[in-house]
Amino acid sequence: MADCDILIIGAGPAGLSAAGYAARLGYRTVAIDALSPGGQLLYIDQIENYPGYESASGYELAEKLEKQAASFGAEILFTEALSISKDGDSFMTATTDGDIRSKAVIYAAGAHHRKLGCPGEEEYQAKGVSYCATCDGPFFRDGQIVVVGGGDTALTDALYLAKLGRDVHIVHRRTEFRGQKMLEDRVRAQGNIHLELGRTVASINGDGKKVTSVTLSDGREIAADGVFIFVGIEPNTKILEGFAELDHGFVKADGHMRTSVPGLFAAGDVRTTPFRQVVTAAGDGAIAAHAADEYIQGI
Ligand code: NAP
User: Using CA atoms, how far apart are residues 106 and 202, in angstroms rounded to an integer?
Assistant: First the structure.
């Protein structure tokens, strides 16, 4: 594969923002992703807190970010990064389609859904168990839905699912939510959302073909057609293990997005950060591109 100045690994909001900024600075910029551009945006129904948008679908915003980055000259390729190493002053990234040499790398590979790990979760995946409300919610129109988790994703997506399903039960292990108060207030005001707080899911049950119920830690069984698991994210940092410094799996990066490896920058959900939002990911991407520019220029 062709060499470039700045290689961006991951084409979610952080990666696409970095790609736009880097290409606009005149660098030969390549952004790669193993999946369609957009990252976790593709799992979000509506975004209400991205500046300038009263409301936008995740897909719509992903498309706009991709188009904008491409309009500045960034090349966006569909390939998976397999390893990164340093070869003198440059980086060598092995991908499923060959090696890419670059002067700097911005690592913006994002995160994936954490699994619950209870009996039935694996068995009934895609048979009622889901990690994406926008993708699978419409399958459970007028059905009984269970949402697991107490963060922003669980609250936002429970509100979305409550528009589709007959009833939504939120099962959360604590009695306080981790998610934003404004979302919690909306959830509590929604007539068909029921809260199962201070409880966990003991098992997800079914008839072999599809989910039929969920058993809670207090022994009660709730009828369920769909079980949506939103118990957080885990960073996609496997290929950085032993190469860059990590903290609980997240890439350690400073305010300039610099990692422990000179020339390697991290942006978005994959890095250590107190606040993971689309807007902060996009901001990280802009800073990372600026820092990569300074690094290449030797400033
Ligand atoms: P999160 O904030 O990490 O919340 C995960 C939730 O799952 C927590 O309530 C946690 O419980 C629970 N949990 C974790 N492991 C569990 C287990 N093994 N069993 C049962 N429950 C478990 O994750 P998230 O909601 O996916 O959000 C990820 C990031 O994206 C956050 O920074 C969030 O702010 C951001 N986000 C923002 C928006 C928005 O602004 N509209 C929307 C979605 C996501 P505890 O509370 O007890 O730890």
Answer: 41
Residue 52 CB-density burial (10 A; 0-12 exposed, 13-18 middle, 19+ buried): exposed
Distance from the CA of 239 to the center of ligand 1, in angstroms?
24
Q: Average model confidence (pLDDT) for the chain?
A: 96
Which CATH code is given to the segment(s) 4-112+233-297?
Answer: 3.50.50.60
Give the residue carrying structure tokens 């060598």.
Answer: 92
Residue 232 Cβ < 6 Å to ligand 1: yes
- 132 catalytic, yes or no? yes
Are the C-beta atoms of residues 259 and 98 closer than 8 Å to each other? no
**85-127 pLDDT, tens digit each:** 999 999 999 999 999 999 999 999 999 999 999 999 999 998 9
Report how far ligand 1's centroid is from the alpha carbon of 113 (Å).
10
Q: Do 4-112+233-297 and 115-229 share a fold?
A: yes
For domain 115-229, give the CATH number.
Answer: 3.50.50.60
Contact 145, 226 (CB under 8 A): yes
Q: Which of 97, 135, 185, 247 is catalytic?
A: 135
Distances (CA, A) of 14 to 55, 161, 211, 266, 297: 19, 27, 36, 9, 22
pLDDT for res 135: 83
Reading the block at residue 256, the tokens are 């300039």
